[in-house]
Amino acid sequence: MLFWDVDISQTDMDKYPSFFVQRVLEYGKWSDWNILVNYYGKEKIVNICMNLRSLDPVCLSYICAISNTKKEDYRCYRIAQSNPTHWNS
């Protein structure tokens, strides 16, 4: 279940789109992704992702590939670059 930590009946996809987009990208199945694209549209999903503070690197690469955008355009990438760690994880 994608939303194990919230009461899904109390959530609103229009009020919290970034929560839904990030959760589906990082933990969802292909069918979940299709529901998301049908609901928000690819352009809105890309815009939401550009403003996320964190996003799994694989998910970021996928969004860049399907939208023909650069990683540097995404807030999560810029934040990661400005906060380097001692070890690659």
From TrEMBL:
Stored Pfam families: DUF6922
Q: Where is the DUF6922 domain?
A: 2-48
Q: Which InterPro entries match?
A: DUF6922
Q: What superkingdom heads the lineage? A: Bacteria
Would you tell me the protein name for this molecule?
A: DUF6922 domain-containing protein
